[in-house]
Structure formats: C-alpha cells, structure tokens
Model the fold of this input.
Amino acid sequence: MERITLHDKTFRTYIPYAEIDKAISKVAQQINRDLMNEDRPVFLGILNGSFMFTSDLMKKIDLNCMVTFVKLASYSGTESTGDVKEVLGLCADITGRTVVVVEDIVDSGTTIVKLVEDLKKKNPKQIKICTLLLKPDAYKQEIPLDYVCIRIPNDFVVGYGLDYNNLGRQYKDLYVID
Ligand code: IMP
Ligand code: MG
Done:
C-alpha cells in the first residue's frame, strides 16, 4: 500500500484508478442513454476538484454537448465551512438547456444546494447532478443526485482532483486519511 504525506497528514491508497475508471464508464453510459434526445446539454464542471473527473468523464460522452466550468469553494482543511463562495461565475447561456453539474464529491450537500439555487435563476430546462463521490451518511439534502459513481463512508479523501489544503490533487488514485 502506498502512502503520501500532505502537510501534517498521511494518506494511504484507497481506490485505484482502474476502479474509478470503471465506475465513470458506467455513469457515462447512463448519461449517454438518458440525454440522447436533449439539445446540446451543458456539462458544468465545478473547479477545482472536478478537473480530472470532468476530463475523464467527457471522453466517454457521445453527445453533442458543451463543457464549461465554474469555481466554488466551501472547504477549509478537512472540514466543510458551510460557507460557499462563488469564485468564478458562469459565462455560458444555459437558458432552456439541460445542465449536468459535474462534481468531485458531495459531502454535506451545501455546495450543491447553493449551486442549484444559482443555476435555477438562469432558467435551464433541467439540472442533473453527476458526482464522482458521495458520502451518503453526510448528505441530508432534498436534491436528487442523478449520477453517483462511487459511494464512500465519511472519511476524508484526496487525489484524483481532490485536495487537502490545496495539495494532493494530481494523484491518479484516491487516498484516504490514515
Ligand atoms: P459539501 O458542500 O459539504 O457537500 O462539500 C463539497 C465540497 O467539499 C467538495 O466539492 C469538495 O471540494 C470538498 N470536500 C468534501 N469532502 C471532501 C474530502 O473528503 N476530501 C476533499 N475535499 C472534500
Ligand atoms: Mg469541489
């Protein structure tokens, strides 16, 4: 088992890339099926965490679609601050379009709630949520999560785009706090 150290914490290999890739393929197939008849859906990646996931997911999407990003932040260290700031806004026109939000991880759901609230004001046809990871024991919101690749317990994870205080995003596998 491989270990990495980021700041003051050690992490060990948790979910290898091969497993992540398989889970993404499954979800991509569902999306391809479900959105086949939609007019140019907009895939909206949430930076920074979803950059790697969005990249891998999009390579498996066979739809005539748009890919764009917004940047949000709600975490400080290993705990959610509950205070979601929109750092970089949305430029694309999503009026009447199907939007697929692409998130790295849904934890408490605060980020998703704020984001969906903001997106609804721009009158999209519908909003679908796609997340690489979900912590079901932490998620207490009403918003349905349409596409979940992997469900994990309430442990802090890094790698594959996810960070601990801005470090660890570049690793291909997922690591869990040791
Ligand atoms: P939520 O608003 O509580 O659902 O938190 C969502 C955001 O917190 C995600 O987009 C991540 O950026 C971050 N986050 C939540 N859990 C983790 C984790 O285990 N590792 C790294 N970042 C996390
Ligand atoms: Mg994030």
